[in-house]
Design a protein that fits this description.
Elements (H helix, E strand, L loop, with lengths): L1 H5 L8 E4 H7 L10 E4 L7 H14 L8 E8 L5 E8 L5 E5 L11 H9 L16 E11 L10 E3 L8 E6 L2 E5 L3 E2 L11 H11 L14 E10 L21
Antiparallel strand pairs: 1-2, 3-4, 4-5, 6-9, 6-10, 6-11, 7-8, 8-9
Bound molecules: flavin-adenine dinucleotide.
């Protein structure tokens, strides 16, 4: 299907590997039950580096880039149009007013908070919105980093249909191996998402199905949790979660 959709723009075409070729390429795999491999090609990028180069490019083109500056309020003109933002420097606690012709929110899982500022006449957020997100619902995803022997250096492994129905992968990453993931629906957007021991253990248990050696907790070099901003169709939001209902207060 990848090749079909990519057509002439395919990075490279897919091919099947016999069981013995798969084991040559991935000697860490448990041969029991292994039938073979299907190789396909996909893109990968370093999100942290991409973010830094984006910020540097913007600066090179005349932008002022501010980090640790949280938007607390959208400032409005008498017609209710946004004319800037009030921000707080998270390092010093000082507040600043920033004038703007347009305000663009690219706040991922926090989009509902910014949308509530946009909707409110005062530009202040609905305080409870992150405990009851409306349009962008959060899902926690944990990744772990393992030593290099968990995967070949130039080819990752992905199982799209694991014992509990999720996608598992091992990917060569910065000389080590990135493995995951979990997909846990959250009922609120956490301020500092953390990978729990239960989630790390869950990933390790699932990974054990693939490799022939013992997966050990002490092999985990680092672990973190990210929040996926999954978009929900506003017309499908249940009545009790509609704006103005329940305990949350809606500014109009
Ligand atoms: C575990 C996991 C795996 C994923 N895997 C994939 C994948 O394989 N492929 C894929 O395409 N996508 C994947 N995603 C999704 C992808 O990472 C996100 O969709 C993407 O990062 C969203 O980008 P964004 O710029 O919209 O938001 P974010 O990257 O979340 O950025 C939002 C920014 O807004 C800032 N912010 C929030 N509120 C305020 C405020 N009040 N004032 C100032 N700043 C604020 C935040 O600090 C943050 O820096 C994955 C996500 C997770 C968590």
């Amino acid at each position: 299907m990848y090749d079909l959709f990519a057509g002439s723009q395919a990075l490279r075409y897919s091919y099947l590997m016999s069981k013995s070729n798969t084991l040559d390429k991935h000697p860490q795999l448990d041969p029991a039950g292994l039938v073979g491999g299907l190789v396909y090609h996909d893109g990968l990028f370093n999100d942290a580096r991409m973010n830094v180069s984006l910020a540097l490019t913007a600066m090179k083109n005349g932008a002022n880039v501010l980090n640790y500056m949280e938007v607390k309020q959208i400032l409005k003109n008498p017609e209710g149009k946004s004319k800037g933002v009030r921000v707080e420097d998270k390092e010093t606690g000082e507040e600043y007013l920033v004038a703007a012709d347009a305000v663009i929110s690219a706040t991922g899982p926090y989009s509902d908070l910014l949308l509530s500022m946009d909707k409110s006449a005062t530009g202040l957020p609905e305080p409870e919105i992150l405990n009851k997100p409306k349009m962008v619902v959060p899902s926690g995803g944990v990744h772990i980093v393992l030593p290099e022997w968990y995967c070949a250096k130039d080819m990752g492994l992905l199982d799209a249909s694991t014992s509990d129905g999720r996608v598992m992968f091992f990917l060569p990453w910065q000389g080590k191996v990135l493995a995951g993931t979990t997909d846990v629906p959250l009922n609120k957007v956490p301020e500092n998402p953390l990978a729990t021991e239960v989630e790390i253990d869950d990933i390790l248990k699932e990974l054990q199905h693939y490799v022939k050696f013992k997966v050990r907790r002490e092999d985990v070099l680092s672990a973190w949790c990210g929040v996926r901003p999954l978009v929900r169709d506003p017309s499908q939001i249940p009545d009790d979660e509609q704006p103005g209902s329940g305990s949350t207060q809606e500014h109009t």
